[in-house]
Amino acid sequence: MNLRYAAALLAAGILGACRPEMPTTSTITIDLNRPTVAVDRDLYGVTSEAADGTVRPDEWSADMITNGSFEVDGPSATDSIAGWRALTTGSALTIDARAPLSETNRRSLLVRGGVVADVSRGAAAARGERFELTCYLHGTVGRSLTISLRDSLAGRMLAEPLRLTLPDAWTTLRHTFTATDSVCGATLVFETDSGASFGLDMVALFPQKTWRNRPMGLRTDLIEAITDLRPRFIRFSGRMMADDGSRRVTASEYTRLCQDLNIRPVMIKADESGPKYLMDADLMMTQSDLFTSDSVGRYSSSATYADAFGTSGTDDAGTMRAAVGEAAFLIGVERRPGCVRGLSYTPLIGTPSTGGLLLAAMGRLVRTPSYYVWQLFADHRGRRLLTTNVTTARKPLLTYGKASVAVVGDAFAVESADTLRGNSSRTYNGSLSARLMRKMNGASGSVRLRIRDNGRTGALRDAIVFELTDSTVCLIHESGTLDRVLAGPIEIMRSPGWMEAKVECVDEAICGYINNVRVIEAAAPSRPSLVAVATSDPNSGTIILKVANTTQHDERTALRIEGGSVATSAHIVSLAAPPTARNTPLQPTAVMPVIRNVRLSRWPMVYVFPANSVTILTLKMQ
């Protein structure tokens, strides 16, 4: 692992004896007497897909031009095309299909005056760096064309410009620019004589320094960041059709990259669909026991890879709070090997507004707190899962929201619905009643009575649901993209005529009623203060303990080991920061892992886990 660990004060997480006047609030017990099971060492990987399933292979390409083949339908205005804009107010841009370059590429860009392409998406320009330009062009015979690499305002020159005479037929152009200055953002400018027109197509600008210096290859900064994650696989689509006219990264290129990194290539099939775990940080924390409490295998999907994971698109995206929530969920996954075949964070590359493992901004890739959690978890796997018991406080998740009724299919008719209490979006105690009738026995469909519904969708969704089908009822927590069953399904008697269904929430209690008879109940979802998992590595003789502290206070925790002993030293990696802390292009190292080696005063011992933190302790067995 190639981490740059920041220096930090050792004020939190000090090892030592517990003072009598300061009792512990949690206990973690590792039982070495219990049987162990093999760790799924192939759990963590990366994918080229976004959280919504779209494919953006151009983000992996080192090509710095967007829409270089002009295949995107842009606005009808004459001053901008997707990825391109007019150089001056007197310039005009038009998508031209009258003189296609080829039968497979029938659209080109017709320019009068000048045009600017923003090339800052791929990477920053560094002094002395060389860039390879390729394109097809034609224009007014005898007129001159100037092509230049400039700053983000299309003003200051960053390299010696190229001047040429326009040909009357499509002609291939290749040229190398050498940057004379360093900038975070750059533009590629084409400018001709006043009144002259020219056509462009298949424009590409690559740095000479690509991954392994392969011509028109992959981004070096991205592949280096992926390498540091130590993924066990790369998932990519066999379709790989970019929709913005950018260069397509082919399946063979992904396969070759996997060979470079000595990892497994996994092609996503067109009809393949796996589970999605997209939700905000609090919901991630409440679902940390999803798999360990799943006695019937309802949520296990070991045959397929997860399609999406993370907090992207939520208010927490990119923050330390998101990283802690994701760590809590991942610990739950690790506590039950095989429940998920493979996880990939989505998206791999995002923006400050959407979140991702990496943020693309100001010509660079910024590693987020979520990136460091993914890196640390992939790098501290162990080989055998140990029995780990955690005694800790839990805080109920009582969501404010409204009430609603939704009918799916043809099984039910709804005559009326009445919110007895809780008709305000700022209420979490209340009930919802609905008068229902089954249309026919055995009909498909259901009716959902929602309460504490925040009214949002996708990863932001949060509601309590009383669901009725033709023969069963259950209570469900709609948690982001996940429907988690809190209780049920329970079979109910089929009865003719109309019936009254009601769901009621009173603090932590959730109950479902039919004709004023309670038929099902459950407790509200809750967030544990600490989430932990321990593994061992017989080869190195170590115990690896991962802990996420989801609270906003330090958690004094008793650490115990049954059936063995450990040495009086520990290797500790900690990621801790305020909940809203994030890494930005201007402060890319605001949140970083801190590593230290310490001596233990005694065992059993007390460890203080910092507020809002992820900690990994590596202990040497004796």
How would you sum up this structure, described in words?
This protein has 622 residues and is mainly beta. It contains five helices and 42 strands. The strands form nine sheets. Strands 1, 2, 23, 36, 37, 38, 39, 40, 41 and 42 form a ten-stranded mixed sheet that branches. It has a six-stranded antiparallel sheet with strand order 4-5-8-13-10-11, with no helix packed on it. A five-stranded antiparallel sheet has the order 6-7-14-9-12, with no helix packed on it. The radius of gyration is 29 Å and the shape is globular. Residues 1-21 and 239-245 have low confidence and may be disordered.
Summary keywords:
mainly beta, 622 residues, 5 helices, six-stranded antiparallel sheet, disordered N terminus
In short:
This protein is mostly beta strands and 622 residues long. It contains five helices and 42 strands. Helix 4 (320-334) packs parallel to helix 5 (369-379).
Q: How many strand elements? A: 42
Helix-and-strand structural type: mainly beta
Give the end-to-end Cα distance, rounded to a whole number of Å: 26 Å
Share in β-strands: 35-45%
The pLDDT mean sits at 84
Query: What is the approximate shape?
Result: globular
Q: Helix fraction?
A: under 10%
Give the helix tally: 5
Low-confidence stretches: 1-21, 239-245
Rg, Cα atoms, Å:
29 Å
> Main sheet, how many strands, which sense, barrel?
10 strands, mixed
Question: Layout of helices and strands, plus pairs?
Answer:
Blueprint: E1 26-31, E2 37-38, E3 44-47, E4 80-81, E5 84-86, E6 92-96, E7 108-112, E8 114-118, E9 130-139, E10 144-151, E11 162-165, E12 171-178, E13 186-192, E14 197-207, H1 220-228, E15 233-237, H2 251-261, E16 264-268, E17 276-278, H3 281-286, E18 308-310, H4 320-334, E19 343-344, E20 349-350, E21 358-361, E22 364-367, H5 369-379, E23 384-391, E24 394-396, E25 402-409, E26 412-421, E27 430-438, E28 445-453, E29 462-468, E30 472-479, E31 482-491, E32 498-506, E33 509-514, E34 517-523, E35 526-528, E36 530-537, E37 542-549, E38 555-562, E39 566-576, E40 594-599, E41 605-609, E42 613-621
Parallel strand pairs: 1-38, 3-15, 3-19, 15-16, 17-18, 20-21
Antiparallel strand pairs: 1-23, 2-23, 4-5, 5-8, 6-7, 7-14, 8-13, 9-12, 9-14, 10-11, 10-13, 21-22, 23-36, 24-35, 25-28, 26-27, 27-32, 28-29, 29-30, 30-31, 32-33, 33-34, 36-37, 37-42, 38-41, 39-40, 39-42
Helix pairs in contact: 4-5
